[in-house]
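Q: Here's a chain of 171 amino acids. Please give me its 3D structure as tokens.
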Amino acid sequence: MTTTRKAARIGPHLFRDTRPSIFEARFQLGRALWRDGKVEVRLRELIRLKSGQLAGCSHCNNLRIADAYTGKQPLTEATIVELQDYYHAKDLTEKEKTALMWAELVITAPDSITDSFFEEMRRFFSDDEIAELTYFTLFNNMEHKFIVAMAEPPSDHTYTRTLQTIYDGNF
């Protein structure tokens, strides 16, 4: 099986034009998670990036690194690279590492989340924040998988830049 893609299958804007109510509902959820979220922006960005890595969305990772160079993003390139092995990353806090582990488990093995790990999450987050992190993780995982499945060309940042504009540039 090959992973090389030559062209987009179905662009997200086509879906916007053919199913506007679904497309708008998706954006409403994204807006609410970014605008009304209580979890700090840096942590949300770490989770968004980890979600992209787990989904195989190199497009998103490359875009975040480019944004790190220009200061449009709260993370450095070094931090972005360290996400592959976040548990050993030097510039991540224990709280950030715990949240990243939560996000990874939510995406890859939600049934393996133990009561003791949930209690570990409660050391750093309220129940409301845990719920927010979970919604945020799953929303971003869906977005990344959509981009990967629809094979948006990596050079076309239109979709991601549209999300940034709609979410009021909080990225």
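Q: Can you summarize the key feature?
A: Residues 165-171 have pLDDT under 50 and may be disordered.
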